[in-house]
Amino acid sequence: MAYVEQKQQPGKFQSRFELPPPVYADSQTSTGSRCACRARRVEVFRRVAKASIVLVFLYVIAGLSGWTGGSSRIGQSLPWCHKSEAGAIDGEQPGANLARLPTHFVLPSGDAIPAIALGEFHLILHLHLPSPSSHNRTWQASKGEVGNAVKVALQSGYRHIDGAWIYRNEEEVGAAIKESGVPREELWLTSKLWNTFHAPEDIEPKLDETLRRLQTSYLDLYLIHWPIAFFPDEPQKIDYDLTNNPYPTWKKLEELVDKGKIRNIGVSNFNIRRLRNLTDNGLRYKPVINQVELNYFNPQPELVKWSKENGILLEAYSPLGSNKQVGESLNIPEVKGIAKQLGITPAQVLISWQAQRGTVVLPKSVTPSRIEENLQVFRLPTKLYEKLETAATSHKPQRVGDPSKAWGIDIFEDEV
Ligand code: A2P
């Protein structure tokens, strides 16, 4: 997997200082040598003063532009203007003086997947996930909301839409994409195979349904949504054969890659044991992606490390803690502190942190201003990045979403 670096923002503070034209004492008009001598002294004094002013200006400019390096005394004494650690300065875009992060990851197929996607909500009425608490619409949106969000996202520059058959909004999404006028080849479309359809004979018809609803002939990425298979006729009854051995499901997905209906295949919500259990089969196409919950509350450092070592790109869902815990996420003292220091929003800090960990990030929102905000990610200065990573990995991990109880199976096999 390779990372594609986006060019850094052009440097700031590059305008030249224009000094007023020099004013000299006119010796031709002097009336005597004492006057001439005084005039010379005045002129020398003026030149020295001017030179000093120029030197002070140049030193300040050098400090502002970062020419004096990260440990510049100027940067330290004027933290508001240090290039790599500064917040927004009046009149500037927030984060304008911060470096950008890679915009894409390149998969083994050669396809470049955009690092930030619009994550989608389920359409309300969805039945198979744990019920949201009464005041939270966890993962849910009303009819029309997701279609609008997709339109706003595409207008704002997103080119990656993360969906799933079970979200029950693929028609809405397909229509919004069509309306946007963005050419299909510029887009990255992901969908997911629902638990009820893991049996090889059920997969292609469901994929075709997704393709038809999205109005496309292929998906860029198709994921096994959960490592749990249900029997088709009894939606929440677990098919332990296909759950314990997902190879037949995978072989069918490989066949669909060969047919050209899917360009890349992967999994979602798999832990390391479940992934090994699958890849031990000597696959023709390895899973290139594992989409999992990754956020401050559940940062999964071991999975992040293992996935990097094994060439599997992680995608972070619920990066803000989902509807359930977004308020808490945005109020974490470390997150708020970094946001203030850098002049960006707490949501941008959290999304940037995940992207900087080397994962694709899938923030969900149906609010236009937030959709735009979430696409702006920045490279956090190393010290701040490490501070956040340490804070996130120092508390007891807690999943924001876990349907294990509702489905009667330990999905993640977390150590308690
Ligand atoms: P909304 O859709 O009303 O904008 P996650 O991506 O972790 O699943 O979190 C989704 C939740 O976070 C939604 O409630 C969404 O609300 C909210 N959200 C998304 N982006 C932002 C943001 N930039 N600032 C504040 N809340 C946000």
Automatic annotation (TrEMBL):
Database matches in PANTHER family: ALDO/KETO REDUCTASE
The keyword Membrane is assigned to this record: yes
InterPro entries found in the cross-reference section: AKR, Aldo/ket_reductase_CS, NAD(P)_OxRdtase_dom_sf, NADP_OxRdtase_dom
Residues of the NADP-dependent oxidoreductase domain: 137-388
Top-rank lineage group of the source organism: Eukaryota
Name this protein carries in UniProt: NADP-dependent oxidoreductase domain-containing protein
Coiled-coil segments: none
Keyword field: Membrane, Oxidoreductase, Transmembrane, Transmembrane helix
Protein source organism: Botryobasidium botryosum (strain FD-172 SS1)
CDD domains: AKR_AKR1-5-like
Compositionally biased residues, Polar residues: 1-12
Bilayer-crossing regions: 48-67
Lineage: Eukaryota, Fungi, Dikarya, Basidiomycota, Agaricomycotina
Pfam short name (any one): Aldo_ket_red
